[in-house]
């Protein structure tokens, strides 16, 4: 039994945690398409009705997977952020650790992407149902930005974490299609983007450029709202 089930207190909480743990294990080992509510119930040793009582659909359990991945991302990167106060290095740690946490799911990533493509899908990363997992990513980027040695002007610092979350989603989309060994193409794309960011950061302090840059940043951040 995994940690979630161990820490649950009531029978209902233990059952819910068991279903969640079984589902996440199935997603990792079987992927999205092969994982069904009936299969989850069978693996958990409970009825389909009980499973549906706690999670109305498979996509509700995908949201639990999103949360699990992003919580692991946060736990992995927070100690690393303490090793540097350079903004670009801190952002690099967030992006790279995020890719590391996604990697075990790469084999089945196209299945999850297919399920999430519709704007009406509850597992669309920009859906209302995905707010909690997005908020975790925004919070990690906010920690990376605010903990940097050379802070950005407040007008940029406020919108930047949300804009970086959108960049994280776009990088993950590229990662889904990346068949190169170790996802080397994705890593090169990230490294190139970080180099451009380092070159462009001084522009944020040029007063005449602040307004258009802030407007651009706000437009990108709005995508994730």
Would you give an account of this structure?
The protein is mainly alpha-helical. The mean pLDDT is 90. Helices cover 73% and strands 0% of the residues. It has two domains: 1-56, Homeodomain-like (Arc Repressor Mutant, subunit A, Orthogonal Bundle); 59-223, Tetracycline Repressor, domain 2.
Which keywords apply here?
single chain; 225 residues; mainly alpha; Arc Repressor Mutant, subunit A; Tetracycline Repressor, domain 2; 2 domains; 12 helices; elongated
CATH secondary-structure class of the largest domain: Mainly Alpha
Per CATH, the architecture of the largest domain is: Orthogonal Bundle
Question: Helix segment count?
Answer: 12
Provide the gyration radius in Å: 19 Å
Taken from the alpha-carbon principal axes, the silhouette is elongated
State the end-to-end CA separation. 36 Å
Q: What is the ordering of alpha helices and beta strands?
A: HHHHHHHHHHHH
User: Could you give the count of β-strands?
Assistant: 0
CATH fold category name of the largest domain: Tetracycline Repressor, domain 2
Main sheet record: none
Task: Supply the number of structural domains.
Answer: 2
Write out the CATH superfamily name of the largest domain: Tetracycline Repressor, domain 2
| Mean of residue pLDDT values | 90
Low-confidence stretches: none
The proportion of residues in beta strands is under 5%
Helix content: over 70%
The secondary structure category is mainly alpha
């Amino acid at each position: 039994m995994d940690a979630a089930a161990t820490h649950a207190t009531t029978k209902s909480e233990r059952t819910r945690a068991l279903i969640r743990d079984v589902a996440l294990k199935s997603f990792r080992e079987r992927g999205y398409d092969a994982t069904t509510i009936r299969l989850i119930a069978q693996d958990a040793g409970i009825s389909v009705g009980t499973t549906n009582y706690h999670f109305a659909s498979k996509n509700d359990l995908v949201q639990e997977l999103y949360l699990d991945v992003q919580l692991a991302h946060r736990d992995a990167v927070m100690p690393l952020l303490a090793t540097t106060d350079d903004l670009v290095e801190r952002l690099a740690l967030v992006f790279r650790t995020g890719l590391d946490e996604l990697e075990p799911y790469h084999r089945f990533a196209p299945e999850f992407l297919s399920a999430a493509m519709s704007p009406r899908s509850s597992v669309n990363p920009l859906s209302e149902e995905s707010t909690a997992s997005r908020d975790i990513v925004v919070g990690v980027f906010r920690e990376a930005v605010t903990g940097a040695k050379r802070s950005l002007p407040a007008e940029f610092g406020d919108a930047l974490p949300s804009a970086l979350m959108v960049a994280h989603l776009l990088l993950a989309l590229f990662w889904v299609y990346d068949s190169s060994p170790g996802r080397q193409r994705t890593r090169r794309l990230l490294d190139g983007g970080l180099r451009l960011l380092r070159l462009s950061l001084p522009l944020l302090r040029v007063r005449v450029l602040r307004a258009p840059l802030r407007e651009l940043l706000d437009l990108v951040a709005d995508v994730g709202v």
